[in-house]
Amino acid sequence: MHIPDGFIDIPTSVAFAGLAAAGVAISLKGARASLDEKTAPLAGLTATFIFAVQMLNFPVAAGTSGHLLGGALAAILVGPWVAMLALTVVLIMQGLLFADGGLSAIGLNVFNMSVIGVWVGYGAFLLVKKFLPKNKSSITFAAFIAGIISVPAAAAGFVLQYGIGGTATFSVSAVLAAMVSTHILIGIGEGIISALAVGAVMASRSDLVYGYRGEKVTLEMRKSL
Amino acid sequence: MKKDKKFLVAGFALTIFLAGFASFYASSSPDGLEKVAEEIGFSETAKENANAKSALADYGVKGVDNARLSTGAAGVIGVLATAGISTGLFLVLRRRSGAEK
User: What's the whole-number mean pLDDT along residues A70-98?
Assistant: First the structure.
């Protein structure tokens, strides 16, 4: 999903870099509220885990591979603001150190995977959680669905960018159909990995899961009323 | 606090294992976007990454011929760099204990 240099023209790349920078600036503020002595190292671990798992391309249909994007996973583990920063750090490292994702495309990639991936993933998580019983396995199941939905959403972000400033002239609807259908398959992998990771943390240290902690706090508050 | 430390150490060890060892077994097929670009026909519009000749380009350490070693070392370097920079950033941003809420 990392866009290389050249797919999208420079004006569009610059515009999305501006949007991505605005998103990061807001998340720098938003992240403060959920970062303290205890959660800051965990947030660092989450970013590191996403970097590591993004290296693990898994095969999907016919000669295609995909890898975790991690937006939904990070949002559930450490909250959406911190998750945006975690994904942004990962994407910058990949572009600068490993030539993965074009340097002129960093803004495009941050917009798709950090802004869209995190917020669509987190939104889906909250929505699914709402309709499920308040227990631990609901959190894991919601992570599964959030992971699945976040990937085609991020892929649609690319199609938007292609529609505005693609350097090729193939029809946008053809690119949309191909991107979304391919990334639904990759999204299933994303859902499975997200559920496994969230499930493992829920089983060992559910108190560390942002998307569950909120739940517990409200429950305890209700009890104390 | 001690429990947190244990969790962090275990988690970090897992990331080193994944990036340093398991990464060698990752699929090298084109990813979703590359595949779509090939199928539709715009893959040639990609330009070479400005860092394509850098020491760690494409998750390998330049000069290390053993593929397992090269990918693994690149993965470990990436893990250390990401852990250092992200944890540093989050520690700088955190609310200081005792500071205003």
Answer: 98
- Summarised one tens digit per residue, pLDDT across range B8-20 is 999 999 999 999 9
What is the pLDDT, as a whole number, of residue B3? 87
Residue B62 at interface with chain A, using a CB cutoff of 8 Å: no
Name the pTM for this structure. 0.94
CA distance to partner chain B, nearest, from residue A158 (Å): 9
Q: Of A16, A10, A12, nearest to A108 (Cα)?
A: A16
Tell me the C-alpha distance between A85 and A100, whole Å.
18
Give me the residue spans of the domains in chain B. 2-26+52-93
Give me the residue from A5, A31, A98 closest to B47, CB to CB. A5
- In this predicted structure, the answer to whether residue B45 has a pLDDT above a threshold of 90 is yes
**B42, pLDDT greater than 70:** yes
* pLDDT tens readout for residues A130-183: 999 999 999 999 999 999 999 999 999 999 999 999 999 999 999 999 999 999
Backbone angles phi, psi at A38, to 5 degrees: -80, -45
Contact between residue A147 and residue A72 where contact means Cβ atoms under 8 Å apart = yes
Q: Which residue in chain A is spatially nearest to B87 when comparing CA positions?
A: A44
Chain A to chain B Cβ contacts (< 8 Å)? 226
Rounded Cα–Cα distance for residues B15 and B80 (Å): 10
Picking from A55, A61, A67, the residue whose alpha carbon sits closest to that of residue B39 is A61
Across the interface, which of B14, B29, B81 has its CB nearest the CB of A65?
Answer: B29
Q: Quick check: A65 and B31 CB within 8 A?
A: yes
Give the CATH class of A10-224.
mainly alpha
- Nearest chain B residue (CA) to A28: B93
- Backbone conformation region of residue A99, classed left if phi is above 0, alpha if psi is from -120 to 50, else beta: left
What residues does each domain of chain A span?
10-224
The verdict on B30 touching A (C-beta cutoff 8 Å) is: yes
Cβ of residue B24 closer than 8 Å to a chain A Cβ: no
Interface check for B65 against chain A (CB to CB < 8 A): the answer is no
Query: Worst-scoring range by mean pLDDT, A124-128, A214-218, B28-32?
Result: A214-218
